[in-house]
Amino acid sequence: MADSRGGPLVLGIETSCDETGVGIVRGHTLLADAVASSVDEHARFGGVVPEVASRAHLEAMVPTIQRALKEAGVAASDLDGIAVTAGPGLAGALLVGVSAAKAYAYALGKPLYGVNHLASHICVDQLEHGPLPEPTMALLVSGGHSSLLLAPDITSDVRPLGSTIDDAAGEAFDKVARVLNLGFPGGPVIDRYAREGDPEAIRFPRGLTGPRDAAYDFSFSGLKTAVARWIEAKRAAGEEVPVADVSASFQEAVVDVLTRKAVRACKDSGVDHLMIGGGVAANSRLRAMAERRCEDAGIRLRVPRPKLCTDNGAMVAALGAEMVARNRPASAWDLSADSSLPVTEPHVPDPHAHDHGHGGHGGHDHDHFHELSKDNLYS
Amino acid sequence: MLLLALDTATPAVTAALHDGSRVLAAAGEVDARRHGELLLPAVDRVLAEAGRKLADVTGIVAGVGPGPYTGLRVGLVTATAFGAALDVPVHGLCSLDGLAYASGLTEPFVVATDARRKEVYWARYADARTRLTEPAVDRPADLADEVAGVPAVGAGALLYDTVFTGVRRDGPEHQSAAALAELAAAKLAAGEELLPPRPLYLRRPDAQVPANYKVVTPK
Ligand SMILES: [Zn+2]
User: Fold this and answer.
1) If you ran DSSP here, which 8-state letter would residue B124 be given?
2) Between chains, do A106 and B43 touch, taking CB under 8 Å as contact?
């Protein structure tokens, strides 16, 4: 359906965590990116509280859609489809977006595309750097996920190579920030302090980097504990905690492992492009180290601007537009919000529709969303 | 006039179409875990049965609860999204009022629905059309003196029938959008103000402020 105007016009809705995002794209062109965040309401809890997020989504949903349509200067009746994050994510939060998308699509007589949040994080780069190379290697890092994914076709074939076995990278930032009393979310503030600190000051452990460890999996729980112990020891000795050095050294450990494994995955798979997405992709040290290591390895790095790396509706619209362009079947009206939608399912087609584009690549481990619970929020 | 009514505040996922004088079609299912899946197909069914299109609808009516939140939000966001996409007004009605209206009772009574966590959402009525109290959430045992022997309808009253001893087993157990639509049509015809389509949660979100972070160094 890629037409003379530059591709399908699609509205995308994202409510998998604490951002109510609505984006509108035409093919690979971003027309609107409206976001309402409830992050401030979660700050005092030190993590995203699912019910607080769901309530905020309901308040913000329709106004954010209206704002996006206005920003894009398009009429809802001109849309070629409505895309929505069907999962993975917080169940109650996803359900608000899925219900809104269905209602709009039904009322407007447009096809509905329930799409995968992780695949959307990858596809958003089409808005920044044009068509994705096939295959694309992607490193997704945020408060909810840390994954290495190989995507031969972003609409039908996404393969998980590895993911975190405990905390997501962004969670480790949040927890370390809490131990340092720097507030929530931790990523931006640690990045800021780290610029004044020495990344070599303290040698924190690099998880899962031993010769027998899973090559593409991550672990940040041990690192988080090591940092907390180090800080406690300083405090117990009555010494001042060097916040900048701790931030820089902790960040260095995270970024070192992420980039090392991502570059290795590219080399092992013979892929000469690396895409980095997710909220942690906004981290300045991650960007710098990835640039250097990719350059050394002859890999072309693609990182979207920070606003497109964090959760947003434009990424969902971008994947939806690709679904339309490649004639993927739409979703059914009884589409579910699936909090643990496997990454191997880039979208959720109507089970009764004939899907001509889908490859037979089942059997991968499910990359289940690392749902925030009281345990991993407060421990 | 063509009203589309829907309610997902209770285990019933229900939709109905009303033309100002009568209910044209109604559909629904009782399934507390599949509100998101069931609502749109139910709307589609009532429209098909009445031979109308969503674009013909002149107003939306949504039950605003009280009800368990996740399901409640499905109906409200669907209603407000329909309203925005079609550019028609969206009205809210207390979900308990729909059950009260369906009861047809002419004497004082109470409506109670299941609020889970061993609590009920409930309100007192003078008759099927007149609510006397704001909806509340309480433990049934705390209401025993107030509701003993008083006629009662709704799944909450049936569930705690040792407290709601006047429960009417022939009364409505589950919400029906048909009753909600009839009540809304009557209120609109009488020039009464309906509620904005905003949720009645009646409880604060579950979230504790974490105490200072846990010390990880063994003592
Ligand atoms: Zn994300």
Assistant:
1) E
2) yes
Q: Do B77 and A236 touch (CB under 8 A)?
A: no
Instruction: Kindly report the number of other CB atoms within 10 A of residue A160's CB atom.
Output: 18
A179 touches chain B (CB under 8 A): yes
| ipTM of model | 0.94
CB distance from B90 to chain A under 8 Å? no
A291-331 pLDDT tens trace: 999 999 999 999 999 999 999 999 999 999 999 999 999 99
Helix H segments across A206-305? 221-236, 243-269, 284-297
Here the tokens at position A297 are 């390895």
Token digits of residue B176: 């029906």
Kindly report, residue by residue over B138-177, the tens digit of the pLDDT. 999 999 999 999 999 999 999 999 999 999 999 999 999 9
Q: How many CB pairs under 8 A join A and B?
A: 117
User: Cα A101 vs. chain centroid, distance in angstroms?
Assistant: 20
**pLDDT, tens digit (0-9, with 9 covering 90-100), for A148-158:** 999 999 999 99
Domains recognised in chain B with CATH numbers? 3-94 (3.30.420.40), 96-167 (3.30.420.40)
Query: Which residue in chain A is spatially nearest to B77 when comparing CA positions?
Result: A100
Q: What is the pTM of this model?
A: 0.91
